[in-house]
Amino acid sequence: MKKSAVLMTAGLACWMGMGIASAQEIKLPEGLMGLGTGDKEEESKKEKKSAGLPFDLTGFIEGRIGVRTQSDDHEKSASIGETRLQLDMEKQVDMFTFNLTTDFLLDPVVDDYGVDLESGKGLIDLREANVTFSPLDFMDVKLGRQILTWGTGDLIFINDLFPKDWNSFFIGRDDEYLKAPSDALKAAFFSDSFNLDVVYTPRFDNDRYIDGHRISFFDRGLNDLRGRENVVTADLPDDWFSDDELALRLYRSFGAFETALYYYNGYWKSPGGQNMMTGAVTFPKLQVFGASVRGPVAKGIANMEAGYYKSASGSGSNPLVRNSEFRFLAGYEQEIATELTASVQYYLERKLDYDAYVASLPPGAIVDDENRHLITLRLTKLLKQQTMTVSLFNFWSPSDKDGYLRFNVSYKITDSLEVEGGGNVFYGAENYSFFGQFQDNSNIYAGLRYNF
Amino acid sequence: MKKLFATLVFPLILFAGAAQAQDVMEVVKKANHTSYYQGNDGRAMVDMEILDDQGRSRSRQFVILRRDDEEADTGQKFYVYFNKPADVKKMAFMVWKNVDRDDDRWLYLPALDLVKRIAASDERTSFVGSHFFYEDVSGRGIEEDTHELVEETDELYKIKSVPKDTGKVEFAYYVNWIHKATFLPIKTEYYDENGRNYRTYTALKVEMVDGHPTVTASQMSDNVSGGKTTMSYSEVKYDVDLPEDIFTERYLRKAPRKYLK
């Protein structure tokens, strides 16, 4: 009896002991025995370059399909249906790094295969073709076609006046396609007290704006929706070196807070007016003065950004040119649970010559509010060891009574194969408000991508 | 006689107890230094293999640059540049590790040319989808736990650490085996409230690099799901004289190639 009790105790101790190993049982890792006899020669691993190619190559191939969730009299029922191959080549020669990123795509939804590198339409969309180098210790240069981003907003841009592709954004292409390329020279200067970015675009690069090819919209002149049967024509400022753009950013950090001042001299990036004679949309002159700050607050990151949009002279009382505006943004992002991040933003767009604007409108015209308020909410959840991402982004305007919901679920089946699905849902009380006009374009999509 | 015994022995016992408590903190400090602060700076190429509970394998390859702040064993700056897999290639991740508040983190997404500030207060979440946590990679503050030496052999210290603020962490305590000669932690077991060892760190390989004993292969296993991650370090170098401005927006946008090769 006594013996069995002892055995039982021993057995129990042994079983429990599996939890906490004793120091005697710990096996030393390889290399710890006899350490201290001198430095071990490091195995020099040969550079693992992609075999046979004189440059570094990566990219992906993907298929993406999407349909409208309701019928649209002005567009096809398919919102997207494309096969895309992206080749990203990089080559270093001495101090120069050459980048060439080219997308080849087959897109039957917009059945126009003529290549237009500016609009990205056709079989080729040239994303990047640039060279980077540092001519001086305190200076970096990037020359050529490039993607440019700055500012603090999350899918809201005040001082980032680099071209966007709103069509890609609204039909469910990957987020990277929200940014359209600029043909520019970027010179960045660095010093101990502040840094300066100068971006010069010798010929105006407009947004890839909503022109009816893919997405229908409300035309206030027609007082109706229009789409692919009646696409927009544009009067683009397109003279080299005279219709140019200059964007500056002066920035520095104070501790963990990043501050910046911005200046832009160019044109409204999306149509900001109309030519009364031809009906073509125009891109009036625009100057923007702005500032931003971003840094840690409580358990998250807070940001504020403001901009004064000085529209072309006489815009106050000219109904065919967009009013000057004050724009403001405040945001906050925090991790609210394990692998779950939430962010909220408030955005204000205020017309600065409101009375003159109202007075200039023809009788019966739609009158915008003086202030457009917008609130956004983003939720991002990572699952399955971060191979699955569920995200939701909602824009809601209490003043326009409209909104836009973006949702996406993506899953990495392997390191190279990724599947995703999502939707773009537009809603609104009126068919002419910013998001309300796109209601017929609400869509869902799915994509499969192979990275190499 | 009895009184003499009490006066002589009692203080000795108290003293021994105090001395031991100090030793533990000394060991923990040294282990912390050996794990995260050797040299003034350093770089390493990391090959990471993540095996999930179903045995599916994923891999990451990145270069880590590290630079310590002036004051010893306090703040650090990290720059992580991804080479693999293809969808994260050229992405850069930067951390300013702070002792007095949450770390600052930035992520650079090259396709968007976007420098994103990351709001992440939880240090005990997965580092790039692996079984290692951020805190395992950058170090856990030694003042965040109370440490107790529970066993000592010729080669090892066995130390049990209990968190002071249990609300901030997922473990009830962890047990660390520290190699006496090098002060390298060679095994760590994490226990939950039920006393279950659900997570284990193991140093697999140690090499002497530039005079510093360095773990060049390690593993973190999830004993509940069965998944595990192995990290292999190569081309490790200490005291490379990394300039401080590597850890700024400039080099997020333009990778410091000289130090990444």
From TrEMBL, chain B:
Residues 1-21 form the signal peptide. Transmembrane segments: none annotated. Keywords: Lipoprotein, Signal. Residues 76-254 form the Uncharacterized protein TP-0789 domain. This is Outer membrane lipoprotein-sorting protein. It comes from the Bacteria.
